[in-house]
Write a structure and sequence with these properties.
Strand content: 5-15%
Number of strands: 4
Structural class: alpha/beta
Strand order of the largest sheet: 2-1-3-4
CATH superfamily: Response regulator
Shape: globular
Distance between the termini: 30 Å
Order of helices and strands: EHEHEHEHH
Length: 165
């Protein structure tokens, strides 16, 4: 087994809710095997208050989190990604930058909790989004990544994205 640390980028249009949750959950659940980042095609400029509330309520630091453009990660000095996941349908359909390293990609669509009306309903939506992301991340981390060829790995990543939680 390799000690390689895999770089993961989670993309969403606004990079304010789902992709930020994914970044934090990947870094926590990955226990050093994965280094996750998040970005958006049209960043909102701030992390959604509902995401901040959920993260703080679950003991996660928000100090380093910010809404950022995917352009930051297409520069020559950016990390080379092994995996890139889109978590919103808009970002999945957009023309992405060319990524160094030819990362494996998949769409893991998660309903947007940010626009849910009502405090209790919004909290429930953030809980559900985080649970869906955590489940997919755990399934991904259980894959024998080093042993799968690129085509099989791509299909497994897509299968995880199709899971209905």
């Amino acid at each position: 087994m390799t000690n390689k640390q895999y770089n993961v980028l989670i993309l969403c249009t606004g990079n304010s809710a789902r992709s930020v949750l994914g970044e934090v959950l990947f870094n926590v659940l990955g226990k050093g095997k994965f280094k996750a980042y998040s970005a958006g095609s049209k960043p909102a400029g701030k992390v959604n208050p509902g995401a901040i509330e959920w993260l703080q309520a679950h003991g996660h630091s928000i100090d380093e989190l910010r809404s950022k453009s995917w352009d930051e990660f297409s520069r020559p000095d950016a990390p080379v990604f092994d995996f890139i996941f889109t978590v919103c349908d808009n970002a999945a359909g957009e023309a992405c930058p060319l990524w160094l390293g030819h990362p494996a990609t998949a769409h893991w669509g998660i309903p947007d909790p940010a626009h849910i009306e009502g405090d209790a309903e919004r909290r429930a939506a953030f809980n559900k989004a985080a649970e869906q992301l955590a489940r997919r991340i755990q399934l991904f981390m259980a894959l024998p990544i080093e042993k799968l060829d690129k085509l099989v790995l791509k299909e497994k990543l897509n299968e995880i994205g199709r899971i209905q939680d």
